[in-house]
Design a protein that fits this description.
2 strands; mainly alpha; disordered N terminus; 8 helices
């Protein structure tokens, strides 16, 4: 928040609430990293892919990404730590964009740690509830970041880049989590069969990627980061179904097409937004 003087806007001093938020978000990032370590099997924890009877393993369902897909978590956690450090800098205490996102980023990190704990306990149905809540929080962050322009390119990378990757990946993970829960519940093909349902879900994922791209078109870093993470996850579903079990060439092709849509959609929408801005339409933003 700023005040305005004859010489221009002057940043207001951070409040005690700002300082509290800065400290708590840093602590939350450490909790998230600790949860990730436990989820990887460190400290005696069980790897997520082995928990819940292997319901979330790479070969559990037709919508499960191949194992290398989960390496994106390392980038996301690095981004979350970078965000925590950036927002904790003394000069950033009263930055409006960080005020509007800090607590929500904290909640997302805690929910992610809770999700890991729930899966470790084998509570697969509860894991769907938690990851749906996480996806909702990230959607709120998406809206807040779109509504508030970044102050600099660096801020855009730290905030939009991190949240974008996080949201894109969790969107794919939510689909995989729901599919794993249905398989664990032995609901069968629900009248259409696993292949047909998988193709339908992948088509919805592609449509969702377009919705994200259109909504975030004036925040290029955010839109592209979402698309990259979505494309990454969907591409690894294609790899899993074409090279591993359960083998399903139809799902592999559908996942590949969805990945291409997710990758190209933000490129197209942001370029159109920038072109519109230059020709007198809605101004483009970072």
């Amino acid at each position: 928040m700023t005040s305005v003087t004859a010489s221009g806007p002057v940043p207001l001093a951070p409040t005690s609430s700002d300082r509290l938020r800065q400290v708590v978000v840093v602590v939350g990032s450490l909790v998230a990293v600790a949860g990730a370590a436990i989820g990887s099997g460190a400290f005696g924890g069980q790897q997520v892919e082995d928990a819940a009877g292997g319901a979330l393993s790479a070969d559990a369902t037709p919508l499960a990404p191949a194992s290398p897909a989960f390496r994106i978590w390392s980038v996301i956690y690095l981004g979350l730590v970078a965000y925590a450090v950036y927002q904790a800098l003394p000069r950033n205490g009263s930055v409006p964009r960080l005020r509007q996102t800090g607590w929500w980023v904290l909640v997302s990190m805690l929910l992610n740690a809770v999700w890991i704990g729930v899966v470790q306990q084998g509570w697969i149905v509860a894991s769907v509830v938690v990851i749906a809540a996480l996806l909702t929080v990230l959607a709120v962050l998406l809206v807040r970041l779109v509504r508030t322009p970044p102050d600099s390119a660096g801020q855009a990378v730290v905030t939009d880049g991190t949240v974008g990757l996080y949201l894109g990946w969790v969107s794919v993970a939510t689909l995989a989590n729901i599919a794993a829960t249905l398989v664990a519940a032995d609901v069968g093909g629900l009248g259409l069969g696993a292949t047909a349902w998988s193709v339908i879900v992948l088509a919805l994922a592609a449509a969702l990627s377009v919705v994200y791209a259109v909504f975030a078109r004036h925040r290029a870093v955010l839109a592209v980061a979402i698309g990259l993470a979505l494309s990454w996850g969907l591409a690894w579903i294609a790899v899993g179904r074409s090279t591993g079990e359960p083998r399903d060439d139809v799902v592999a092709v559908a996942a590949g097409v969805a990945a291409a849509v997710a990758l190209l959609a933000p490129v197209v929408t942001t370029l159109v937004a920038r072109s519109t801005g230059r020709t007198g339409g809605v101004p483009s933003a970072r």
